[in-house]
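Example 311, ligand magnesium ion.
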Amino acid sequence: MKIAVIGYGSQGQAQAMNLRDTGLMPIIGLPPKSKSRSLASKERFEIYTPQKAIERCDSAVILAPDHKHRDLFESIPPRLLAGKSLIFAHGLSIAFGLIKPPSTCDLILVAPHGPGVRIRELYKEGKPFTAFWGVEHNATGKANEIAIEYAAAIGCPRQGLFKTSFRDEAIGDIFGEQVVLCGGLTGLLETGFETLVKSGLSPENAYLECVYQLDLIIDLIKSHGPAGMFERISKTAAIGSLDAKDKLFDKSMRQKMKKLFGEIESGRFARSLMRESETGMKQYKRNLAKLKKSKLQKAQEKMGKRMAGRA
Ligand code: NAP
Ligand code: MG
């Protein structure tokens, strides 16, 4: 299998390095002015334009940002895709019709669970990771085998693969990151932290109570389930928390989650992502700048320095 890795960011770099260590020497596809070219050439990969890389491969792994898939596919003449397998790490651009590759190529999903650095670390430690996989279109007749072979080559063995569709992966992944893992969690930490600070506790105190011990609780939930976690904390913590959980996550919270799910499922979020991309990511930059100035961020920076012995 001759593989082209298109994009060399978080996933691109990790997957390209894992493929190389497995013995499949991938080539890299990046636009001529891409900032990532120097990083890929430092690692001594052969770099081509996306078009040239796709011409030279059997399978192209599309690891450019989702909001750039449209530009990328506009630069590739459809005839070059005939008989090729396109492998995606996220279902969004296909599920919501942001791109429409020709019916002459395979559309395969291999979506690892974890950021690139983690995928690389686990591979180096010889530990398997999990991924979703699926086939939207099987033009070559070999798409299933190619998906499984590709996943194994980046470090995800057969038992770590969970079958899904592009649509379900896209909706589930986006909902999970927005509502639970990234958006929801940060909002919960921030709101809890601010409530304590506004009530007179010091930011250090609020940070230690609301954020610092998060990994310990998550480890307990991952190892023993939510009930197992409650069984392992103090009775004071367990009795109060089980009650507070139901008060916080009441009907109105569920309705808000359902509304966010609707925005994702209907394609509204995918359209707003494209609008953001076309207008210079203004809202994203504004929101991130605000978070960088937040009391919670400052408390983390102070605590990080103190624990590193620099303050
Ligand atoms: P990323 O870190 O933002 O890197 C994107 C790479 O693509 C960069 O090297 C960028 O180059 C390059 N690029 C930009 N425009 C391009 C174009 N038109 N043609 C070719 N390359 C282009 O992206 P990522 O987070 O790895 O995400 C890649 C894919 O993996 C996405 O589909 C994402 O949803 C999926 N995924 C990501 C994660 C994760 O944790 N990051 C996890 C699972 C799945 P420049 O340096 O020039 O910008
Ligand atoms: Mg995602």
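Summary: Residues 3-164 form a domain with the Rossmann fold fold (CATH 3.40.50.720).
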